[in-house]
Amino acid sequence: MSDLETYLEETARQVDIALGRYFGDVFGDLYRAGAHLLLAGGKRLRPAMLLLSADAVRHGSSDNLMTAALALEITHTFTLVHDDIMDGDTTRRGVPTVHTLWDEPTAILAGDVLYAKAFEYITLAAAEDRARVKAVNMLARTCAEICEGQHQDMAFEERGAEVEAGDYIEMAAKKTGALYAASASIGAILAGCGPVEADALYQYGMNAGIAFQIQDDLIDLLAPAEKSGKDRGSDLREGKQTLIAIVARERGVDLSKYRRPLTPEDVDAAIAELEGAGVLDEVRRIAAERVTTARQALQVLPESQERKYLEELVEFFVRRSF
Amino acid sequence: MSDLETYLEETARQVDIALGRYFGDVFGDLYRAGAHLLLAGGKRLRPAMLLLSADAVRHGSSDNLMTAALALEITHTFTLVHDDIMDGDTTRRGVPTVHTLWDEPTAILAGDVLYAKAFEYITLAAAEDRARVKAVNMLARTCAEICEGQHQDMAFEERGAEVEAGDYIEMAAKKTGALYAASASIGAILAGCGPVEADALYQYGMNAGIAFQIQDDLIDLLAPAEKSGKDRGSDLREGKQTLIAIVARERGVDLSKYRRPLTPEDVDAAIAELEGAGVLDEVRRIAAERVTTARQALQVLPESQERKYLEELVEFFVRRSF
């Protein structure tokens, strides 16, 4: 295991402990519904990015920022709870979704409670008042962007073959990039950085998040179900407008024949066809470009172990297979 | 028209102008869905309470706090958008509800966007950083309480005859009291008040809000539909656990015979029965007690025109018929 992976594991453990303290023994059905997905595990990459960014601008500052790190994870979880209702998904992180286990009204409210907790926890960060106001403002603008991204993603279904690569990148920037951007930038802001570093880390997180979303699409196609927790090729089956589908269309590969129940052999055939036409290489290239841009943004920071980890983190985003 | 009513009308006009500026010409379906109910009018009582409280602790301070006032109105509206989905309501403020006009996924997201805007706007208040952090923290805790109140209210349906007056007051405190409490207290906090005044205005708003909710129940029963915008006696027909239903049960009045489609004569008969058993007088007495408590809380404030308006405002809460 690399040093980064050890760091990520240790941070996830600390995040899990903190989440357990706040949400492990909650009272009443509503808070249990809110805690359900939050306590179902996860890679806790947004908290890790926030804490690394804080330490990268001022070493040791992450010690005071665990509640802010939780705020980002809680924000992510609230969006998943609401998305699962909208998308009608029944399983997430290996457990039934909130609206499946309870009901839709409870799931809407559980998401809303988590939303509130995210803003409460960010105000609890041990940081300058001015920095906390900026952090709240950034988190709020980010939440609006995530909603826009989810709305665009849903609209892709109707727009179908009209959706172009630029539309996809805009959607991914809002749905996934914005929260990573906020994670990195809020960490730096709460650590007391200036505007140049805050902007640089925002750009870092944004590009890292877009690469992350593209990799998610590749994982859906390529990773065995037991690793990803999803059934392989589900995007293909549902005819989702992923970057893979868009690049395939640009290159004249017709994926519509895969919009049906798929055997593992069907998925393998699709992969072979996409590899043959250079689609997957092109998608990987686009993700790699974002990784490069993300790494370049870090160059305004002084050299440090944490900056090195941030560089490795975005590489990990496109290397992971789950 | 009293001076207070003139003040409320003028404030509502200013709130409407500001909302129109921010939400009147938005781009895209999601923001149009978010703006729909927000621009459909309303009494704008929470912004008025915030601005009056600010001026009651420091005269003239409300001039800088319009964005904070909007934040409270936007918060209220987001809860209505989500509540309408949960309750399956099709009309609100004389217009179709968001999930009726668009669909449920868009309504969930529209509520989520408004939620984000509320927190963004509160950070934009021209106030001390420390005060803004406190305001955000209070708004966040309030949003969680509103969710708890809505969850309790929905649970009342199943609990039926088990629900007691104390349960109702707790629900009303969370669902309605908390946001009025936050309106009054946040106004004072942003105006630079100390903890004694902040607490007093919180208590004022909380008790005013509980009285407001009780009056809402009375209006549902007593006010002609053309005034209230709702069909008269809908709570009775649905067997809702309002304070009226709970006090009726305590006094041995059986309202279950009214759980069916009701003619205006049926509603009149129910009213006569409830008046005869002293139920409505008892409910009015409970609301009046809250009004008295709210007014008493204001006594820590210096005498001023705005304090007088706040006293009159809570009287207006239980006098209004729509």
Protein described:
- Chains A, B: Keywords: Magnesium, Metal-binding, Transferase.
- Chains A, B: GO terms for molecular function: metal ion binding; prenyltransferase activity.
- Two copies of one chain form a homodimer.
- In chain A, strand 1 and strand 2 form a beta hairpin.
- Chain A has 15 helices and two strands.
- The first copy, chain A, has a single domain, classed as Farnesyl Diphosphate Synthase (Orthogonal Bundle).
- A two-stranded antiparallel ribbon of chain A has the order 1-2.
- The first copy, chain A, has 322 residues and is an all-alpha fold.
- At the A-B interface, helix 4, helix 6 and helix 7 of A face helix 4, helix 6 and helix 7 of B.
Low-confidence stretches of chain A: none
- Write down how many β-strands of chain A occur, each being a DSSP E stretch of 2 or more residues: 2
CATH architecture of chain A: Orthogonal Bundle
Q: What is the straight-line distance between the termini of chain A?
A: 16 Å
Quote the CATH topology of chain A: Farnesyl Diphosphate Synthase
Biggest interface, chains and residues, is: A-B, 41 and 41 residues
Specify the CATH class of chain A.
Mainly Alpha
Name the average pLDDT of chain A: 95
